[in-house]
Design brief:
- Strands 6-10-11-18-17-16-13-12 form an eight-stranded mixed sheet, with helices on both faces. It has a five-stranded mixed β-barrel with strand order 1-2-3-5-4. Strands 7-9-8 form a three-stranded antiparallel sheet, with no helix packed on it.
- With about 450 residues, the protein is α+β, with helices and mostly antiparallel strands.
- The two termini are about 45 Å apart.
- It is built from twelve helices and 18 strands.
- Helix 4 crosses helix 6, helix 4 packs across helix 12 and helix 8 crosses helix 9.
- The radius of gyration is 26 Å and the shape is elongated.
- Strand 1 and strand 2 form a beta hairpin.
- It is about 30% helix and about 25% strand.
Amino acid sequence: MKFVTGTSSKATTWQDLAGGGRNNRPVTVHGAVHLLRDMGGLVFLTLRMARGSVQCVCPPSTLPPDLCPECCVELSGTVRKEPRAPGGFEIAAERIHVLSRPAAPMPVSVSRGKLALNLDTELALRPAVLRHPKQRAVFKIQEGLVRAFRDYLTGEGFTEVHTPKTVHAGAEGGSNIFKLDYFGKKAYLAQSPQFYKQTMAGVYERVFEVGPVFRAEKHATPRHLNEYTGLDFEMGYIRSFYDIMEMETGCLRRAMELLAKEYAGELELLGVELPRADNIPCLRFDDAKRLAAERYGYKIRDPYDLEPEEEAHIGRYAKEEYSSEFVFVTHYPSKKRPFYAMNDPDDPKYTLSFDLLLRGMEVTTGGQRIHDYAAQVTKMEERGMDPSNFESYLMIHRHGMPPHGGLGIGLERLTMQLCGLDNIRRASLFPRDRSRLEP
C-alpha cells in the first residue's frame, strides 16, 4: 500500500544555479533544448529552464542520438563559474536523458534575439512563440504586478473575493456587453465585478479581485481587448476619494520595488526602465485638458472626455512639469461616468472619480461610489434607468452602506505601458479581440 503525504523533492531551479551556491557541485536539472552549437569536439547546449537559460558544455559522448531543439531533457553535470556565459556560470554535462522529442520542428526559431514576425502571424503561432525569451519576460513581469497587487492589499487588510462572471445585468451600461442564453434566460458576461465588489465592501470593508473582464466593443485598436484581466479593489469607510488614489499609489510603489528586486533579469532583457510611483501628481480633468492644449497648441474638441491623443499630451505634460510618468486625472464629468459614481457636492457636473495615466495612456479608472439609497435611485431615474432592474444591487444601499469607493486596473494595459509594447495583444497570453478565438 502506498500513501501520498504531500512531500516532494524540489527540483534544482535556474535561480539556484545563478546564485553561485552550486558552483563546483554536481546537479541534475531539466528543461528544453533551446539551442545546439557544434564547436568541433564540444557541443554547447543552451537549456531553457522555467526562469532562464543555462549554457551546458557537452562532450560528444554525452549527446543522445537525434538530440534536437525543443527536446525535453534531464541533464546531470557539474556547475562551474564562467564569466563569459549568460548568468556567469555553465554546466559541464556528464549525462543527458531525453524525456520527449518534438514530432515536428518549430515553425519559427525562438533562439533568435528578435522574432521577425508580423503581429497576426505571431499571435497565430502563440503556443510556440511564447517560448521566446522576450515573450517569456513580458509575462514574468506581469506575474510580478499581480504578486505585488495581492501582497500589498492583503497586508493592508483586504480580503480576496471571487465574483460571478455570468450576470443578469451590465454594471457599466451601454451596448458593449456580451449576451448569453442562460438556460432560456437572458444573461451577460460581466463587464466588471463592480456590483459584487461594492456588495462585499459592505461585508469585509476592504476587498480585491483578480479576474477576467469582458467588453463587447468593436474596437480594433492597439489598446483594446474584448477580454482582459482586471485588478479590482473596493474599500469602505473612506474619507475622500483621494484615499483610493493613496492606496493605489502604495500598491504601485510596492510593485516597482518588487520588480526591481526580483525581476531585474526580465527588465534588462526588455530594456524596461521602471517609473517612479512615490509622488504622483493629480490634475483636475478640466485643468489637465486646458493645460495640455495650451502647452502643445491644439483645440479641445470633446469637453466631456479624454481622447487618446489628449491622454498622451497630458502624460507628456506631467513628465515635463512634474518629472512623473504617472498622473492622476480627477473630477471627470458626470455625464461620462457610470450611474454609481458619486457627484462632486461642490459641482454636480463633475464626479469624485479619476483615471490614472501611465506614459500617456489610461491604465486605471476609479472613484467614490454613491452609498445612499435615495441618491442612487434618483441618479438612475435621471438617466432613464429602471431601478427595478437592479433590485439585488440596490439591496446593499437599502440596508446601509459605508462611504466607499474603488478602482479597476487593466493588467494587460499596465503591462503594455510598463514594458513599452506597441500593442496590448503582446501583453495578453492568448488575446481575444473581434476576430480572434484561437489559439
